[in-house]
């Protein structure tokens, strides 16, 4: 089945897709993006992803060239052309291509790139055993709620995690645990699910929101409150949420076991509820 790309109004095989080397996304990391999961051919919470794409673009003054209807039709067409029932759709919107200068000399059209690839889910063993995470200083900028393609700090953090044999790196800023390099984080204490509140220092994850909803529906109390490093290390359970990982239990933080060092009961309940919400 084909990996599909759509670049500036044209569908083509991913291997043939090209953008200019002068694109501001390539030159400056000047762009925003979304990653959308497709389950059984249906994009998951597409509206929320398109809302966030528009918010990100607005925050950095990149014009959004398509209407909602056009984006929705485009995603549907891309998924159907790919014929992958389980897929990930990546949308990238950059300021456009122009001779390299931080400021555009004259207006250009933004560059739209959309790709569809098969989704290879994480190894089931990770869900059964839980993963290792490490904490890292948050060296990112102050607009982490913008889903920007400028991901150097995230790339370095994730790399650092891998070098230590961990799955994810959690950003800590001024003693606050904010989120992972590619995920949101939550802890469970006394059967209450606690995750840091939305704000400029973390991305408002689509999965995070779904998890808060399904947890509440399952009778789990939820709180959106700041988390300290101590809250993390003394939590009964820790879990990550994100588009590709869904709900992933954490077994160890910086090498120290969380709870029994295995997925806890609230995390398992939330994992079950999340999966049922997909059906
Ligand atoms: N990232 N926080 C960060 C920094 C992220 O990069 C992501 C997701 C999330 C979770 O958001 P959501 O539930 O909407 O996927 C939180 C995507 C998957 C990525 O960068 O590929």
**Distance, first to last CA:** 24 Å
Based on secondary structure, the structural category is: alpha+beta
Supply the CATH superfamily name of the largest domain: D-amino Acid Aminotransferase, subunit A, domain 2
Total E-strand runs: 16
**Low-confidence regions:** none
User: How many structural domains?
Assistant: 2
Main CATH class of the largest domain:
Alpha Beta
Which fold name is given in CATH as the topology of the largest domain?
Answer: D-amino Acid Aminotransferase, Chain A, domain 2
Rg to the nearest angstrom? 19 Å
Q: Using the 3D structure, state the CATH architecture of the largest domain.
A: Alpha-Beta Barrel
Shape: globular
Highlighted features:
279 residues; alpha+beta; 2 domains; 10-stranded mixed sheet; 16 strands; 30% helix; binds N-(5'-phosphopyridoxyl)-D-alanine
Q: Strands, helices and their partners?
A:
Blueprint: E1 4-7, E2 10-13, H1 24-28, E3 31-39, E4 42-43, H2 46-59, H3 68-82, E5 87-94, E6 111-118, H4 124-129, E7 131-137, H5 152-163, E8 168-173, E9 176-180, E10 184-189, E11 192-195, H6 206-217, E12 221-224, E13 227-228, H7 229-233, E14 237-242, E15 246-253, E16 256-257, H8 265-278
Parallel strand pairs: 7-8, 7-15, 11-12
Antiparallel strand pairs: 1-2, 1-6, 3-4, 3-5, 5-6, 8-9, 9-13, 10-11, 10-14, 14-15, 15-16
């Amino acid at each position: 089945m084909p990996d599909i790309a759509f670049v500036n109004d044209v569908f083509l095989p991913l291997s043939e897709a090209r953008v200019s080397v002068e694109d501001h996304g390539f030159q400056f990391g000047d762009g925003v993006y979304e990653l959308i999961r497709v389950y059984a051919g249906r994009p998951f919470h597409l509206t929320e992803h398109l809302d966030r794409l528009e918010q990100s673009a607005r925050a950095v003054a990149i014009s959004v060239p398509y209407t909602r209807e056009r984006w929705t039709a485009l995603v549907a067409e891309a998924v159907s052309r790919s014929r992958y029932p389980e897929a990930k759709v990546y949308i990238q919107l950059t300021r456009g291509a122009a001779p390299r200068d931080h400021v555009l000399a004259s207006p250009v059209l933004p560059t739209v790139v959309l790709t569809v690839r098969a989704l290879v889910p994480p190894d089931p063993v990770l869900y059964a055993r839980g993963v290792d995470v490490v904490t890292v200083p948050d060296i990112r900028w102050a607009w982490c709620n913008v889903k920007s393609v400028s991901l150097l700090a995230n790339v370095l953090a994730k790399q650092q995690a891998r070098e230590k044999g961990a799955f994810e790196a959690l950003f800590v800023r001024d003693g606050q645990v904010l989120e992972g390099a590619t995920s949101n984080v939550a802890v469970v204490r006394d059967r209450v699910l606690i995750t840091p509140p939305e704000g400029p220092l973390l991305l408002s994850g689509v999965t995070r929101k779904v998890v808060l909803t399904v947890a509440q529906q399952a009778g789990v109390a939820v709180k959106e409150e700041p988390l300290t490093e101590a809250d993390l290390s003394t939590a009964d359970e820790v879990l990550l949420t994100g588009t590709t990982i869904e709900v992933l239990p954490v077994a160890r933080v910086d090498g120290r076991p969380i709870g029994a060092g295995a997925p806890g009961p609230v995390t398992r309940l939330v994992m079950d509820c999340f999966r049922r919400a997909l059906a």
